[in-house]
Amino acid sequence: MIKGYAGRILDVDLGNRSFSFRPLDEETARLYLGGKGYGTRLLYDLTPPGIDPLGPENPLIFATGPLNGSLAPQSNRFAVVCKSPLTGGIGSAACGGSFAFGLKKAGVDLLIVRNQSATPVRLEVDGDRDSVAFLDAGELWGLGARATQAALGKGRNHAVIGPAGENQVLYAGIVSDERIAGRTGVGAVMGSKRLKAVSVTGTRKLVLDDQDKFNEYTKWLRKLFRSHPVLGEKLRRYGTMGIVNTTNARNIIPTRNFKLGYHPDAMSVSGEYLEDHGLVGVKSSCIHCPVACGREVTVEGVGRVKGPEYETAALLGPNLEITDLRWVNEWNELADDLGMDSISLGVTLGFAMELQEKGLLQSGLAFGDATGVSAMIRDIAHRRGLGNDLADGVKRMSERYGGRAYAMHVKGLELSAYDPRGSYAQGVEYATTNRGGCHVQGASMYFESTGPLTIDPQSLRLKAEIPVVQQNLACAINSMVLCIFTTYGMIPRQVHELDPKSRLYRAITYLFERSGPMYRLITKLKLRPLTWFEQWLTFVTGETFTSGHLQEIGERIFNLERMYNLREGLTGADDTLPHRMLHESTFPHLDSGHPLDQLLPTYYRIRGWDAHGVPLQRTLDRLKVRT
Question: Does residue 388 share a domain with residue 309?
Fold first, then answer.
């Protein structure tokens, strides 16, 4: 077995309360690394087409990668893979906290949970004794994520669900410490299995190929991260909320259910405002992370809790026309403790407010009015009253009540907090990403709107190329499994300090916009390890990794996900954006929205897909994608 892996998979059947350990398949590990990649391969192979996502045939797969357990900075994440109850296609989510580290210490690379328990159950995995205990979780059922983890105690690492998962809210998540695997409804799948929690323990040590070189390189890299203008300064000082003012200035912050891209009072929910009003502590919820991007705030009646991320602040703030940070903090805490995705929640609440405004639904919710929002969030988690409908997300709500033109989703997954009308590459990424309208499957907007060196966000140049390269890289990162924030360090301080009005800045962006094929070629070169991703993988596994290798692995994973979606009935017709994004402009110099129809054919061609978005056989053969 190549180094960096525990070397085994734990397979648990909740129906007959049995378990078994089996070896990790080395060929699959080489092709897919681990994490999301290996998990997707297992999901494809273990399930027939057309299964019910909330039925017993849908496995819930917790997956680590070769960097988990290595003490590499930000290697604290695990992936969860299953069929999504929200989209009907590939479901995947990533989470920080400590559960990934615990799994590796237990000597487990992947945990497969099959079938359904007749009663609430929790698992205790002891990697030293190779045992799994099936314990009654009746007393925990109904508790929030915080109380559940407190009851389970310290000394183990936990992954739990809250009431939203128990009641199968279609955007429920899985919580580890104060972090959540929020997207695509993985918590609803865990709830459908009546699995309240998984706790892991063990003292196994990870074997690296070159421990000394890894330690030396990692020590240097930690210093680099701490001194980096984003990782060591902006994220540590403001958290991800530090980009509120940037997206607002770029006219891409969701406002009034994405009707607008700017809010005059957005500053009131920014990281800068939080620093002066309500910040009570700075800490990282994830182990082995030198960045510490988590903020700590006080919520009345609860105490000190983790503050909101950018997505939450934007979608529960300006998107609802709410700019009182106290409400955003409260709703963020509610979503985290109840165990649901705050992105989908914010978009769903915004959609309900617009339905109310247009007379299509009597929700009692209104833009700019916090009245009833807290109660509705609780009703969603418990599927009470109208909350039962909101628990199904905006796609199903629009089919029930109308308003499809402004139901802000792609493939059933609610959009993240970057308006693609002011970030064309991000719009292509939203439309084509396999799990739906998500930003962390590529983060293309960093090159257009939020990064230190941005090209024209509304030019057509490079807007198909960037999503391809970024999606491939994100697939690889989510299979190692690393935090996406590690990519920020790739742009050195010198670039951050460039004057946007300088000739050098303009020259670099001019050349980058026109790089096209050269950009794709450079990222695919297999010369020598350069970035930390490549260096770490090389030191850990003993095999040489380059950007070209990572692009190839990521492309393989992305195409396998695509084939899974096609198998489950999602087609090229689903590679689209909401009507509002395509036909309504938020920029006075433009008559229409995102030019997706002009960019999608180029994207398909670069991907090696046909005109309908189906991977060509030669593409699958080249990537060794077995279907």
Answer: yes
